[in-house]
From TrEMBL, chains A, B:
Name of the protein this chain belongs to: DNA-binding GntR family transcriptional regulator
Molecular-function GO terms, alphabetical: DNA binding; DNA-binding transcription factor activity
SMART domains: FCD, HTH_GNTR
PROSITE patterns for the chain: HTH_GNTR (PS50949)
PANTHER family for this protein: GNTR FAMILY REGULATORY PROTEIN, TRANSCRIPTIONAL REGULATOR, GNTR FAMILY
Statement: the UniProt record of this protein carries the keyword Signal: no
Residues forming coiled coils: none
Highest taxon listed in the record's lineage: Bacteria
Length: 231, 231
DNA sequence: CCGTAGAGGATTGTTCAACGATCCCTCAAT
DNA sequence: ATTGAGGGATCGTTGAACAATCCTCTACGG
């Protein structure tokens, strides 16, 4: 009986957590993630509230949730906009990623590790690449690194990085050259995974660090050009 | 509860400045930090909104800010409560601290570093200790580690840890043996600072790791006993 | 032709009242 | 001891109202 109650307690998370504001924010979050609302878009209270059939108060509550996640920015008396990351933001994102992700790898105990999630993300990326779905490759890439962070088995660390990866997607949407951006890193993720499978943390960490440095450089390079266009 | 509401009404005078919701959250945050609202307390929208003289909408926004900082937990249709950390939470907090703080030290470039903030926090702790203000020692201790994280010069990393440290304060308040908890670590912070001043990152990192391990053990030990009392 | 001031419309900021939904407590019945 | 019904309290959401602010378009003067 105790077993069953424990399992039931896990399901509880799937049950009650559905206020209207949260559901609205879920919808908007995924719309933003998929690029339906590109960075810079203004989200009008009237139109979105009307389209979704919720009141302004509820919608504003959803906006606030997403603002806390740094996906929206709020400008007084002007409304909320999908965040436009600056180059400094992108650099800070990668600074955080390098700090945390490398620390996760370094902090791993003795092998073997639970690498199913990582292997799954690698496979996901390969499949998307075969189908020419470069956006899907980018998503799989993010999944790979999210799984990597999950190896630390720290809820707080995972949550921080979830938000950081969501921000990173904003940068990817601005860049909008998904193949050039994501293709080179499929092989590198495989190499990291193989190093971990071999139990070689040191190699995995240095591969990861190199990956992040290269990725930052590439993203910033394209990003700076792209942002320059608008100004 | 009646006492508390009366006192809250006195804070109403401070409500002259920035966004109302932020000011409300400032008030509540410090009230929680000082233990005025102990963990587990339910914060009623009606009574607190009435005592502070703000509308429910504004108060709910303040609640949301604090919920995002993990100081409050929100239960659907039940309201918000001051968070009660579990032992697992405390362990996760220290897991995150160890991951991030050690990574920050490891990731430092070549010396010298900007250690003024750290030195200031050490001095703050010494002064509080001289005055027997053990709660102040705990605060200074947190400041020390916040300054340590600031060395990474990453806005996102700093923000994560700010929230983690705020949570930690909740644990400290439950434990409520500030001298036993904080006194031993004044000297250890000094040692870490000196290692950094000498440019010895490796030593600083191992001192820091040892500090965090000991601190976790001590907090968890007392915390588990303390939580056991309530059950 | 250009720049500026101002009027008007549109949008957001804030509060309030109301109603339904949910939870908790109590009490009676099995 | 467990179940179920009822009542009271609180939360969730909506809709409306009004003030404050921003944006656009127009008209005026240089």
């Amino acid at each position: 009986m105790a077993e069953q109650l424990k399992d039931l307690a896990d399901d509880r998370a799937l049950l009650g957590r559905t206020s209207t504001a949260e559901r609205v924010s879920d919808i908007l979050r995924s719309r933003i993630a998929e690029g339906y609302f590109p960075p810079g878009t203004r989200l009008s209270e009237d139109s979105i509230g009307g389209a979704l059939g919720v009141s302004r108060n509820t919608l504003r509550e959803a906006f606030r949730l997403l603002t806390h996640e740094r996906l929206l920015v709020h400008e007084l008396n002007r409304g909320v906009f999908v965040r436009v990351l600056t180059v400094e933001d992108v650099e800070d994102i990668y600074r955080t990623r390098r700090l945390v992700e490398c620390a996760v790898v370094r902090g791993l105990g003795e092998p073997p590790y639970g690498l199913d999630g990582l292997a799954g993300a690698v496979e996901e990326g390969r499949r998307a690449a075969r189908e020419g779905d470069w956006k899907g490759v980018g998503t799989a890439n993010i999944h790979f690194h999210r799984e990597l962070v999950a190896l630390a088995a720290s809820e707080r660390t995972a949550e921080l990085m979830r938000s950081v990866f969501a921000e990173l997607r904003l940068a990817f949407h601005v860049v909008d050259e998904p193949q050039r951006l994501h293709e080179p890193y499929i092989a590198r993720n495989v190499a990291i995974l193989e190093a971990l499978q071999a139990g070689d943390r040191g190699k995995a960490e240095s591969l990861l660090a190199g990956y992040l440095d290269d990725s930052l450089e590439r993203v910033v390079e394209v990003y700076r050009r792209r942002v320059g266009e608008d100004g």
